[in-house]
Amino acid sequence: MSDDGVGAVALANATAEYAVGAVASDLIAIVQEHEPAIPPEWRALSEVDPAALSLAGTWYWGPTPQILRVHANNELSLTSLATDEAPARFPTAEGTWTGSNGYHAGETLHVVTRPDGTLSHLSVGALVYTREPYDDSAPIPGGVDSEGWRSG
Question: What is the reported pTM?
Answer without folding.
Answer: 0.68
